[in-house]
Amino acid sequence: GPPNGPPAHPKSHMTAPTVMLALTGCPEPEIDDVPAPTLSEAITQEALMGHLTTLASIAEANGGTRMGMSQGYVDSADYIQTQLEDAGYTVTVNEFTFVTFDLESAEVSVVSDGPADLTTLDILAMRFSGSGAVETGFTAVDVMIPAASDPNTSTSGCEASDFDGFPVGNIALIQRGTCPFHLKAVNAADAGASAVLIFNEGQEERRETLDGFIEPTGVSVPVVGLSYAEGTALVGTPDAILSVEVVAETANPVDHNLIAETPGGDATRTLLVGAHLDSVEAGPGVNDNGSGSAFVLELALQMAELGIEPANRVQFAWWGAEELGLHGSGTYFHDDNGDLAPEVEDVEAYLNFDMLASGNGIRKISDGDGSTFDDGVQTDGSAVIEEHFESYFADLGLATRPEMLLAPTDSRWPVLFGIPSGGVFSGAFEIKSEGEVADFGGEAGLPHDPCYHLACDTFDNTNPVLFTELAKAGAHVAEILMQSDTPLVRGEFRRSSVIDHPRPIGCHDHVSWDR
Asked: Helix (H, G, I), strand (E, B), or coil: what is residue 133?
């Protein structure tokens, strides 16, 4: 068994009641007649925290991080793989390539003849902007000032004809509106623009500095976002000379996931259980997401230790580059056209475990039925998964709270494909309320994870009791699904943003994605 495996089953010290057997004439029971512990019983705090100790040590030995593609990540993956292979699993190293955007600096300033009160603009470089520096005049392209009453009305820069007569070498000043930022930038660059400024459209909810992205290919000039106020001020001073400089780098690194599966079980009804293995650059990620990775590992090890033969095949996944934009899971679920990849067409259900040991955390369950967070992606199958988790905690008298199903984590892709999904979560940056203290303990006014995405996300940042509670719940529901003879109903397919909008998402990072 695993070196950090569980202690003997609590009832293993009991001997057969030999006197009663002699009186009744019953045969002495065979070893196989003794019920094996369930997966939930086999998951122990000692084993879970043992895995976290190892992951924490790996981070400490590698500059305090296990971020994607770092040596800390490689060593973490090696540890997971070794444990699995020692338990008899065959492990597939699933390599993938993705796109990164590293912004060093971005600045737009008015050199001359601009608005009197405007010198340096409050801008945001768009993800995957090209690099470059230019000082020249600008040309406003089919802008609508004042803005229309309804958003997505302006067609500024959406047609190549908008740039008829555009002075080659000038900066293009474009307004947000009906079409993607990328199309506006491509049309401008094709017309000879040396840089592209896109200002917000102007409705009440569209006035702040525009934060967005373009696709990682096709535009080599700087592309930045402006506020509506700054855009209109520039339009009013058409003779202004601007300086635009963006220093950034786009790269195509290679990372990898780890995938293991049970040798038996119905492959057409696969249960996929996953967690991301990488941390952020700033810290060791012992809770985020060493905790989820440790649980999925221990689940696999205990299935092997107990000799559990699932009715439905079980796959285990440790995703790479989640913190860089959900890339590992994104590339695994998608084919080159953005459709469901062939290797996951038989996945009937997905369970995701991202943060289970938050130091000031609570017990949260993915809202599969949409009773709290109805974002239109729930399925009957996801509702069933939620019900299994709710029943488990209710039987133990433990309080829970709902968590959005379409969360910015690796479950995003199966959810958008309509694959029944669920999981548990101990909380991140959300502030604990007095009501939560009454139900879960801890301290009000502090985040569920006080060290979320920080260097202090160490072994000492974890809550072992909460971790064990959530892990046992995960094992309980996983065992139900792997042995179930009732298929879960899949929902409708919604094309996901990993292909339509190939921007690094990152956890809890919300921006104006396309237009």
From this structure: strand
For the entire predicted model, the pTM comes to: 0.80
What is the rounded distance in angstroms from the CA atom of residue 413 to the CA atom of residue 327? 10
CA distance 115 to 124: 20
What is the per-residue pLDDT for 147?
97
Mean pLDDT (whole number) for 366-392: 96
Alpha carbon 464 to its chain centroid, in Å, reads 23
Classify 318 as helix, strand or coil.
strand
pLDDT in tens, 462-501: 999 999 999 999 999 999 999 999 999 999 887 654 333 3
Nearest to 167 by CA among 140, 139, 197: 139
pLDDT (tens digit, 9 = 90+) per residue, 144-176?
999 999 999 999 999 999 999 999 999 999 999
| pLDDT tens per residue across span 226-240 | 999 999 999 999 999
Q: How many CA atoms lie within 13 A of 399 on its CB side?
A: 10
Cα→Cα distances 268→92, 349, 500, 510, Å: 19, 11, 29, 36
Known catalytic residues are 322
Give the integer Cα–Cα distance in Å for 459 and 21.
Answer: 50
- What angle (nearest 5°) sits at the alpha carbon of residue 80, between those of residues 78 and 82? 65
In angstroms, the CA 189 to CA 101 distance is: 20
The residues facing 276 across adjacent strands are 319
Residues 271, 481 contacting (CB under 8 angstroms): yes
Lowest mean pLDDT among 14-18, 25-29, 134-138, 395-399: 14-18
**Arithmetic mean of pLDDT, 117-126:** 92
CB burial of residue 30 (10 Å; 0-12, 13-18, 19+):
exposed
Q: Which helix (H) or strand (E) holds 294?
A: helix 292-306
SS3 at position 229: helix
SS3 sequence, 92-104?
EEEEEECCEEEEE
Identify any residues that bridge with 102 across adjacent strands, giving them in sequence order.
249
3-state helix, strand, coil in the chain (%, to 5): 30, 20, 50
Q: In what order do the strands lie in the sheet with 124-125?
A: 100-112, 241-251, 132-140, 171-175, 195-199, 223-226, 124-125
| Rg (alpha carbons) of the chain, rounded to whole number | 27
Q: CA 25 → CA 19, 20, 84, 125, distances in Å?
A: 10, 8, 45, 83
Neighbours of 67 (CB within 10 A): 23
- Cβ atoms of 221 and 195 within 8 Å: the answer is yes
